[in-house]
Amino acid sequence: MALRPVQVNIKALDDSAVGRFWAEALGWSVSSEGPGVTNVEPGDGFVWPDPVAVCIDVVTVPEPKTATKNRVHLDLATTSAAHQAELVARLKALGATPADVGQGDVPWTVLADPEGNEFCVLDPRESYRDTGPIARVVVDCADPRAMAGFWGGATDWTVHEVTGEHAVLRSAQGVGPYLEFRRSSDAKTVPDRVHLDLLPYPGDDKAAEVARLKTLGATDLDLGQGDVPWTCLSDPEGHEFCVLGSH
Asked: Pfam families annotated for this entry (predicted)?
């Protein structure tokens, strides 16, 4: 029994506008499974779920993003300095704005999407040449070692590196983006604007998976979601995530 990260969920005032931004940013396609939801995923015959891509679901909520930095963000891959500069310029033309999260003088560029969700355009790095447009999903945390233990047990992704400063996981198939937990002193003060969604494998029981996660340290989360086919939980540091129903 195990779960797989299949999408990043982003809350937005306007799911369609934010979804279009991310589709254009990544060169992906948009669709909608229902009102208030925009699905962003690769085109060209991509069949969800597939570890080659962690997709994006943009979901409408009534509350705007606060000034607080998101604890989860995306880092985009580039293949050269010229590609990085071109991508940053194109993203700004699409509505991205420069963001200052205290990064100082760094080789990557920090931007925010049209509703203020921070993300980075990385400098070219050999380790991200085969990830696709999303190099990694980055999660701020207090204890990367503990997060590696929980998320390594919660999912079937392989733990590649664990230090006191960060922990890195990737699909056991060796494809798609990385999931990185990075040490941060920032405590959670507002509900997460961006979170991960996990999916059971066909034939696995969602309720049993949720029970297993609780033995690892997950706790129930009530966001006012009501009667829905997914289950909302928090990891041991309070990062929100959802376990989806059978797809």
From this structure: Glyoxalase_6
Question: What is the rounded CA–CA span in Å between residue 209 and residue 73?
Answer: 26
The pLDDT, as a whole number, for residue 208 is 95
- Say which residue the tokens 């891509």 belong to: 53
User: Amino acid identity, residue 182?
Assistant: R
DSSP string computed for 75-86: EE--SSHHHHHH
Tens-place pLDDT, residues 84-104: 999 999 999 999 999 999 999
**How far apart (Å, rounded) are the C-alpha atoms in residues 26 and 42?**
8
Provide the 10 A C-beta neighbour count for residue 203: 7
Determine contact, residues 112/118, Cβ cutoff 8 Å. yes
Using one digit for the tens of pLDDT, what is the confidence trace for 167-214? 999 999 999 999 999 999 988 899 999 999 999 999 999 999 999 999
Instruction: Give pLDDT, residue 228.
Output: 77
Which pTM value belongs to this model? 0.95
Omega of the bond prior to 49 within 30 degrees of 0, cis? Answer: yes
CB 231, CB 165: distance < 8 Å: no
Q: Which amino acid is at 189?
A: T
- The whole-number average pLDDT for the span 33-47 is 94
* Non-local CB neighbours of 127 within 8 Å, separated by 6+ positions: none
Read off the amino acid at residue 196.
L
* pLDDT tier, 138 (very low <50, low <70, confident <90, very high otherwise): very high
Report angle CA 165, 184, 83 to the nearest 5 degrees: 80
Cα-based angle 214, 219, 223 (whole degrees, multiple of 5): 140
Torsions phi, psi of 216, nearest 5? -85, -10
Residue with tokens 């699905």: 39
